[in-house]
Amino acid sequence: xxxxxxxxxxxxxxxxxxxxxxxxxxxxxxxxxxxxxxxxxxxxxxxxxxxxxxxxxxxxxxxxxxxxxxxxxxxxxxxxxxxxxxxxxxxxxxxxxxxxxxxxxxxxxxxxxxxxxxxxxxxxxxxxxxxxxxxxxxxxxxxxxxxxxx
Length: 150
Fold this sequence. Notes:
Blueprint: E1 2-5, E2 8-17, E3 42-48, E4 57-64, H1 65-68, H2 72-95
Protein backbone atom coordinates (compact mmCIF):
# COMPACT_ATOMS: atom_id res chain seq x y z
CA UNK A 1 0.00 0.00 0.00
CA UNK A 2 1.34 3.41 -0.92
CA UNK A 3 -0.20 6.52 0.59
CA UNK A 4 0.83 9.98 1.66
CA UNK A 5 0.82 11.75 5.01
CA UNK A 6 1.72 15.42 5.59
CA UNK A 7 3.00 15.63 2.05
CA UNK A 8 5.39 12.69 2.45
CA UNK A 9 5.01 9.19 0.99
CA UNK A 10 4.21 6.29 3.31
CA UNK A 11 4.65 2.76 1.97
CA UNK A 12 3.41 -0.30 3.87
CA UNK A 13 4.30 -3.81 2.74
CA UNK A 14 3.97 -7.29 4.19
CA UNK A 15 6.73 -9.49 2.79
CA UNK A 16 8.35 -12.84 3.32
CA UNK A 17 12.07 -13.39 3.44
CA UNK A 18 14.91 -15.20 5.16
CA UNK A 19 16.45 -11.96 6.39
CA UNK A 20 14.85 -8.64 7.32
CA UNK A 21 15.48 -6.94 4.00
CA UNK A 22 12.72 -5.83 1.65
CA UNK A 23 12.51 -7.70 -1.63
CA UNK A 24 13.95 -4.69 -3.44
CA UNK A 25 17.29 -5.60 -1.80
CA UNK A 26 17.09 -9.31 -2.63
CA UNK A 27 20.55 -9.33 -4.23
CA UNK A 28 22.13 -8.47 -0.86
CA UNK A 29 20.79 -11.57 0.87
CA UNK A 30 23.81 -13.59 -0.23
CA UNK A 31 25.93 -11.36 2.02
CA UNK A 32 24.19 -12.92 5.02
CA UNK A 33 23.89 -16.56 3.94
CA UNK A 34 25.68 -19.16 1.93
CA UNK A 35 23.69 -20.27 -1.09
CA UNK A 36 23.57 -23.87 0.13
CA UNK A 37 22.34 -22.98 3.64
CA UNK A 38 18.74 -23.50 4.62
CA UNK A 39 16.83 -20.89 6.59
CA UNK A 40 13.29 -20.39 7.81
CA UNK A 41 11.11 -18.00 5.86
CA UNK A 42 9.78 -15.18 8.01
CA UNK A 43 7.00 -12.65 7.57
CA UNK A 44 7.94 -8.98 7.98
CA UNK A 45 5.96 -5.73 8.11
CA UNK A 46 7.80 -2.85 6.45
CA UNK A 47 6.76 0.79 6.80
CA UNK A 48 8.85 3.17 4.69
CA UNK A 49 8.58 6.94 5.07
CA UNK A 50 10.91 9.86 5.72
CA UNK A 51 8.65 10.66 8.69
CA UNK A 52 9.01 7.36 10.56
CA UNK A 53 12.64 7.62 11.68
CA UNK A 54 16.11 8.64 10.53
CA UNK A 55 16.59 5.51 8.44
CA UNK A 56 13.21 6.09 6.74
CA UNK A 57 12.20 2.48 7.42
CA UNK A 58 10.66 0.44 10.21
CA UNK A 59 10.91 -3.37 10.06
CA UNK A 60 8.78 -5.58 12.30
CA UNK A 61 9.06 -9.36 12.48
CA UNK A 62 5.65 -11.04 12.55
CA UNK A 63 6.89 -14.63 12.80
CA UNK A 64 7.71 -17.59 10.62
CA UNK A 65 5.57 -18.36 7.61
CA UNK A 66 5.36 -22.00 8.73
CA UNK A 67 3.72 -21.04 12.03
CA UNK A 68 1.56 -18.19 10.73
CA UNK A 69 -1.50 -20.27 9.93
CA UNK A 70 -1.49 -22.02 13.32
CA UNK A 71 -2.15 -18.70 15.05
CA UNK A 72 -3.52 -16.66 12.16
CA UNK A 73 -5.95 -14.60 14.26
CA UNK A 74 -3.24 -13.67 16.77
CA UNK A 75 -0.80 -12.86 13.96
CA UNK A 76 -3.29 -10.58 12.19
CA UNK A 77 -3.88 -8.80 15.50
CA UNK A 78 -0.10 -8.42 15.90
CA UNK A 79 0.13 -6.95 12.40
CA UNK A 80 -2.68 -4.48 13.14
CA UNK A 81 -1.06 -3.42 16.45
CA UNK A 82 2.39 -2.96 14.88
CA UNK A 83 0.95 -1.05 11.94
CA UNK A 84 -0.93 1.26 14.30
CA UNK A 85 2.26 1.86 16.30
CA UNK A 86 4.30 2.50 13.13
CA UNK A 87 1.74 4.91 11.69
CA UNK A 88 1.66 6.77 15.01
CA UNK A 89 5.43 7.17 14.63
CA UNK A 90 4.79 8.68 11.18
CA UNK A 91 2.35 11.17 12.73
CA UNK A 92 4.83 12.08 15.46
CA UNK A 93 7.56 12.43 12.84
CA UNK A 94 5.40 14.82 10.86
CA UNK A 95 4.97 17.06 13.91
CA UNK A 96 8.67 17.19 14.73
CA UNK A 97 10.49 20.34 13.66
CA UNK A 98 12.02 19.81 10.27
CA UNK A 99 15.76 19.81 10.20
CA UNK A 100 17.42 21.88 7.58
CA UNK A 101 19.00 19.58 5.07
CA UNK A 102 22.73 19.52 5.46
CA UNK A 103 24.36 20.53 2.24
CA UNK A 104 26.53 17.68 1.17
CA UNK A 105 29.88 18.68 -0.13
CA UNK A 106 31.23 16.83 -3.08
CA UNK A 107 33.87 14.45 -1.85
CA UNK A 108 37.34 15.76 -2.46
CA UNK A 109 39.17 13.95 -5.17
CA UNK A 110 41.64 11.64 -3.64
CA UNK A 111 45.15 11.90 -4.86
CA UNK A 112 46.74 8.68 -5.82
CA UNK A 113 48.71 7.39 -2.93
CA UNK A 114 52.41 7.34 -3.65
CA UNK A 115 53.70 3.90 -4.33
CA UNK A 116 55.40 2.43 -1.35
CA UNK A 117 59.00 1.57 -1.84
CA UNK A 118 60.30 -1.67 -0.53
CA UNK A 119 61.60 -0.85 2.87
CA UNK A 120 64.58 -2.46 4.43
CA UNK A 121 65.39 -2.17 8.02
CA UNK A 122 68.29 0.06 8.67
CA UNK A 123 70.90 -1.42 10.91
CA UNK A 124 72.10 0.55 13.83
CA UNK A 125 75.49 2.05 13.11
CA UNK A 126 78.28 -0.22 14.24
CA UNK A 127 80.53 0.98 16.99
CA UNK A 128 83.68 2.48 15.59
CA UNK A 129 86.87 0.85 16.61
CA UNK A 130 90.26 2.13 15.72
CA UNK A 131 92.46 -0.42 14.10
CA UNK A 132 95.74 0.52 12.62
CA UNK A 133 96.30 -0.97 9.28
CA UNK A 134 99.75 -1.27 7.92
CA UNK A 135 100.15 -0.86 4.27
CA UNK A 136 101.99 -3.65 2.63
CA UNK A 137 103.04 -3.41 -0.91
CA UNK A 138 103.90 -6.36 -2.96
CA UNK A 139 106.85 -5.98 -5.14
CA UNK A 140 105.94 -6.72 -8.66
CA UNK A 141 109.03 -7.27 -10.64
CA UNK A 142 109.29 -9.30 -13.75
CA UNK A 143 112.22 -11.47 -14.28
CA UNK A 144 113.81 -10.91 -17.55
CA UNK A 145 115.09 -13.93 -19.28
CA UNK A 146 117.66 -13.61 -21.90
CA UNK A 147 118.17 -16.11 -24.57
CA UNK A 148 121.60 -17.50 -24.67
CA UNK A 149 123.29 -17.49 -27.92
CA UNK A 150 124.59 -20.86 -29.02
